[in-house]
Every structure is written in C-alpha cells, then in structure tokens.
Design a protein that fits this description.
By secondary structure, this protein is α/β, with parallel strands linked by helices. The chain has helices spanning about 65-70, 105-110, 115-125, 130-145, 150-160, 175-190, 205-220, 230-235, 255-290, 295-310, 375-385, 405-410, 420-425, 430-440, 445-450, 455-470, 485-500, 510-515, 535-555, 560-610, 625-655, and strands at about 25-35, 40-50, 55-60, 80-85, 90, 195-200, 220-225, 240-245, 245-250, 335-345, 350-360, 365-370, 390-395, 400-405, 475-480, 505, 520-525, 530. It is flat, with a radius of gyration of 35 Å.
Length: about 650
C-alpha cells in the first residue's frame, strides 16, 4: 500500500487518505449477476460510499456470497458495470486455514502484507549494511504503525478470546472453529479500505461478539457485512442492501429500520397491486361485454390495448419457509434436574466447582460468561455427557432431555437423507406425516430424500433441530443453536421456543434469541455459577468492567515478572537504539561529505557570478574566457542544486529515525 495510516488508541482503525475523495465509491450500474442459468441479481444500480457500513441480507441462495466474490474480483458480472477504486486494499476472512507450525500471533500479523514486506526488506538491508535503505524502511515502518503492530495483533486475539498462552501456540493446535477466529483476526489486522465479512459471529461467544461490534464501530474503512444476527447488524451497520426477487435494494438505517421500511414498501406494493387488479377487472369486464358488438368494438379494442400496456405489479408477500413447533411433552418431573455442590473438569483442577442449581418445568435460563469460563462444560454436565468430579447430578423421574451442540451435526449420517433420519428415529409414524413435519424445516420434495452429506451448515443444523424436537423433550439444553441459521429460521426457532412448555438452558451469542426466550440469567465466572442480576445491556457493561480490570491488573504484575519485563524492555530499547544508530550513521556520513563539498562550490559560484556580472569582462582582454566561465557557472549550479536536494532528502530521512 502506498497510502498512510493512523490508529486510534482503542480499536485498530485505519484511515486511508483517499476516503476524502468523493469519487472513490463502489458503483453498480444496471448490473446483472448470474451463476450458471440462475439469475441472482438483475438491474442493480446503487452506490456504496467510503466509510459506509452496509449489511447485506437476503434469503439463503439469493446471491450474497456471489456478490462478495464479485467485489473481490473472483467473479465477473454478466452485464452492466461495477466500478471500484483500483487502489483499495480489500480484506476478507479466508475459509481455509492450513495446519501451520507458526504461532497464532505471527499468523494474525500476516494479515498486514505491507508490514511483512517491510520486515523482509529490512532484514535484507541490514544483512547488506545498506544504511540508506534501512533508514527509508524504518521511516515507512513508523508511518504504518509497524512498531505497534504486535500489540495490535495481541489485542485482536485477546478480544476474540485467545489467552496469552494461546498466542504462542502453533496454528495447527487449534480446532476448526478457533482457526476461523484466527482467520478473522488476520482479516482485521489488514489495514484495509474495504472489509468483507461473511457471518463473522458464527464461531464467536457472546463476549467476542460484543467486542467485535465495538471494533467494527471504530473501523474507518468501508464495511460490507453478511450476518444473521439482528442485534449485531443494528449495532454495526448504517445501511442495509437487501437481495429479494433478483433485486438489490439499499435501505438507510440498521436492520430494525430496514424491517420497518420494507414492511411499509410491501404494504404500499400490495395496495397498488389490489388497485391495479380492480382496474384490470373493470377493463376486462368491459372487453368481455362489448367485444362482439360492432358499435362498441373500437372502445373494446382500446381497452384491450390498455390492458396490454399496463405494467404488471406483483403481489407483495413475505414467505418464511419455516413453520414448526415443539410437540407436547406431557407430564414432567419437578424438579427436572438438580446439581448439588457439583464440580466439573479434572479431579485435581476443576473448571467449575461448588455449583448448586435446580431446574424446574417451564424455567428458561440463559448462561452468560466470558469465553473459556466453562459454559459448554456446564451444558455437558447437565446433559450427562460429562460426569461430575465432585457433588451430585440428580435427574427427575421421567426426565426427557433434548441436547443440541455442534457435535450434533457430526452425528448425522452423511449417506442418509432427512427422511431416513426421521424414520430411524420413529419407524412407527407414517412417512407422509414425517414429510409434512420436515417441510416445516424447509425440507421439501427431493430435499427430504437427498443424502445430507452435501448439506450446508445451516441445513444440517435445521435437520439436527428437527430430530431433537421430534423427541418431545421436557428439558432443552442448547449450546449455540443458531450457528449457521439464517434470520428466518432464527425467527421461527424463537417463536417455537416461546411456545415451548418445558424447561430450557441455553448458551447463545444471539442476543435477540436470548431476550425473547430467557426469563433469567446465570453467570459462569471464576469457576463458579451465580445468578446474574441484570439484562444483556448490564452484561455488556459487566464485560467492559472486567476487561478494564484485566488491563489494570496487567499493568501491575508481580515483582519477578516486572523485573523480567523491565529487562526485556531495556534490551528492546537498546536494540532499537542500535538499529537507529546503524541506520543514521551512513546518512550522517553522507551529509558531512555534502557539507564539505557545498562550501567551496558556493564560494566559487559566488565569485563567478560577480565576475560575469562585470560589463568590462566582455570588452577587455579576457572576453575570450566568457564561454568557459559560463560553462563552469552552469556546472556549479547543477552540482549545487543536486547536492542541496540530496541534503534535504537526507535530513528528512534522519527526522524519520529519531536519535533518542
């Protein structure tokens, strides 16, 4: 990148100077985008201005990911134009993470490509003892905030849930979900002009989601975001680009504003449709009545032409393909489940201890807690997948558990269809009844009988939920049930959970779901389970206070660590001073040589100027020397100009490498 940067003190925010240029927009002009024979977008014309944060929404398969591919240059429009500033740096989250041996922190730093290029060039320049090049590179490193890059990368990883120890672990050590977090960190580390994020919250906990929305709020580039989290969209974006019926429409405001505007537009469209239907019926009635009468034939023909010219207005409709509810679970024990002084984890090192919990029928409990606090461990303990290392877990007689976690997707049989899964679960029920049930989860026709191996993550999640709900559970244990689900499915699940009569314990980063379905919250923190007296806004404040406390604690380490830190700081400072001295030395030497040359050149040129300004020179005995003197004057002028230009360059280079 050739542009400069600036960073704020909170979240890493990048300010490319060309943001100030009004012409630097993303421009769609009558754009058509198709994949194979399927048209995804038709006739799109809109502008996305620098610094805008745009949420891209629409049903699954409508073309959101294809539009990202178009913006990244991986796809090309079928017709129309897409104009983007050629100098813009585009960042996106990679979908694959190789099993690398490099530490997580170094992997995140790789997101800043220019930083890595400078580091490589600097190592080569130092090996070659090229002082001038070292100076230039250190200057550029300072311009892009390179000296603080490691601190920014560490802050990104910390916000995304990585511990200090995790940052030094090799990438290959992490599971798939954590590798996706590393890819997200790498994308955020890039000093980008355009940031493309496709479902960035899918693999995050609630605390990481809250951190990310704050980071994106400070991001000064242009953001295009695909998300099925309405609270996240409302907190981050200022425009919504919605794909529907092959049309790409831009709305102002967050997702809630978009829903209201869209409802108003659809209501207006429906009113226009009904009015047009009345007009068409009136015209058709006249045509049908008088077409055969000679005296009225001309008027009838006129109305036929009016019907043909009338542009058809489509009926407005919003179809949610999902419609399901929990089956009546019947009588349930009271209490459903109890923990008494329970501990979980390892005998010598429990993750959670001293837990007391009673779950009664109809209770709706949301689990809160920072990443790694033990929420998933508690859910596993409640489900019976994990046995307590101390204390008691007691089930009520007649307890029927419904447990959903991400491994539920892995337990699906890839070669079997959704219908086969249902038949295996309940072979006594009529196939048509099972098909009707699966239809509520949008498994219709061939989709219900196709093997589930090629299903998307969202489709597999829907199937896992369908299997869970069919079992008539009276206690639901849900660990991130909305991962990979789109907005319509999340809404259908929310409605179903609101009507569910059994008990529920849920972990989710979807705040809209938590608000709509939970009656109380429990906090998992410091190995303990305690009631949380507040709502999700209070929890957001609690997280901020804990982060501030952690930051303050980091400033006051124990004496041994402080001594080691001071020693490391001294060594780093000494190395930095030595590097700056090494870089300044050849520049100072060249500057001294220039000063020694410039003084006699200036003196000689001054004498020549005075001599050539004397009229007597041109009429006296030395008139023949004039051409030679003029030539020497020109040579001196050229030498002095070049030397003074170089003198200025050297001083600028020295200013970029502070002596102290």
């Amino acid at each position: 990148m050739d542009n400069g940067t600036a960073y704020n003190t909170g979240f890493a925010a990048y300010f490319p100077p060309h943001f100030l240029v009004p012409a630097a927009v993303i421009q769609f002009r009558n754009l058509r985008l198709a994949r194979g024979v399927k048209t995804l977008i038709e006739g799109a014309s809109l502008q996305i201005h620098p610094g805008w944060k745009v949420g891209l929404t629409g049903a699954n398969g409508c073309g959101k990911s294809s539009l990202f591919g178009l913006l990244r240059g991986e796809l090309h429009q079928d017709s129309g134009d897409l104009e983007m500033p050629a100098s813009w740096v585009i960042a996106h989250v990679a979908q694959e993470t190789p099993a690398l041996a490099c530490p997580a922190l170094e992997y995140a730093l790789d997101g800043d490509a220019e930083l890595r290029r400078i580091e490589t060039a600097l190592a080569a320049a130092e090996a070659a003892h090229n002082g001038e090049e070292i100076g230039h590179l250190h200057g550029r490193l300072q311009e892009i905030g390179g000296y603080a890059a490691r601190a920014r990368a560490a802050a990104l990883l910390d916000g995304l849930g990585f511990s200090a120890a995790d940052m030094e672990r090799p990438v290959s050590d992490f599971s798939g979900g954590w590798r996706m977090r590393l890819n997200l960190a790498q994308a955020l580390m890039c000093r980008s002009d355009l940031l493309l994020l496709d479902e960035p919250t899918n693999h995050l906990d609630l605390d990481a989601v809250i951190w990310l929305e704050q980071w994106l709020g400070d991001y000064r580039g242009t953001l295009v975001l695909i998300s099925h989290d309405r609270d996240f969209l409302d907190a981050v974006v200022s425009q919504i680009a919605h794909i529907e019926n092959q049309q790409l429409t831009l709305y102002t405001g967050g997702y809630s504003n978009f829903e209201r505007q869209r409802a108003e537009r659809l209501a207006q469209q429906q009113a226009m449709f009904e009015k047009q239907q009345r007009e068409r019926a009136h015209l058709q009635k006249y045509v049908d009545r008088f077409r055969a009468q000679a005296t009225k034939a001309r008027q009838a023909q006129s109305r036929i032409k009016a019907l043909e010219r009338m542009e058809t207005i489509a009926a407005a409709h919003i179809d949610n393909p999902f419609s399901f509810s929990f089956r009546e679970c019947g009588a349930a024990p009271d209490p459903l489940l109890q923990l008494e002084d329970a501990a979980a984890g390892y005998v010598d090192k429990p993750i959670l201890a001293g837990m007391k919990l009673t779950i009664r029928p109809g209770e709706r409990i949301g689990l809160l807690g920072r990443n790694g606090a033990g929420k998933s461990t508690l859910i596993k303990l409640l489900s019976g997948r994990l046995q307590p290392t101390a204390g008691v877990r007691r089930e009520g007689k007649g307890l029927q558990l419904g447990y959903f976690a991400q491994h539920a997707l892995e337990s699906l049989r890839p070669e079997e269809s959704a219908l086969q899964h249902m038949l295996r679960l309940d072979p006594q029920t009529r196939e048509q009844d099972l098909r009707n049930y699966l239809g509520g989860f949008d498994f219709h026709g061939d989709m219900a009988t196709a093997p589930c191996a090629p299903f998307s993550g969202g489709e597999k999640s829907r199937l896992a939920l369908a299997l869970l709900i069919w079992g008539k559970p009276n206690l639901l244990l849900l660990d991130e049930p909305t991962n990979h689900l789109d907005l319509e499915m999340r809404h259908a699940l929310t409605l179903a959970l609101q009507d569910y009569e059994g008990g529920m314990v849920i972990v989710s980063h979807d705040r809209a779901l938590l608000r709509a379905t939970c009656d109380r919250f429990l906090l998992v923190d410091n190995g303990r389970l305690t009631p949380f007296d507040g709502d999700l806004d209070d929890y957001k404040n609690w997280l901020a206070q804990r982060r501030a406390a952690d930051a303050a604690a980091a400033q006051c380490p124990d004496k041994a660590a402080d001594k080691a830190s001071r020693k490391a700081d001294r060594e780093a400072a000494a190395a930095d001073r030595q590097a700056r001295l090494t870089a300044r030395r050849p520049l100072l030497k060249e500057l001294d040589q220039l000063d020694k040359k410039l003084a006699p050149w200036h003196a000689e040129k001054t004498a020549l100027d005075e001599r050539l300004a004397d009229p007597a020179l041109y009429t006296g005995p030395e008139a023949g020397d004039v051409p030679k003197l003029l030539k020497r004057q020109a040579e001196l002028t050229e030498k002095i100009d070049a030397a003074e230009m170089r003198w200025l360059e050297l001083h600028e280079a020295l200013d970029a490498i502070p002596a102290d």
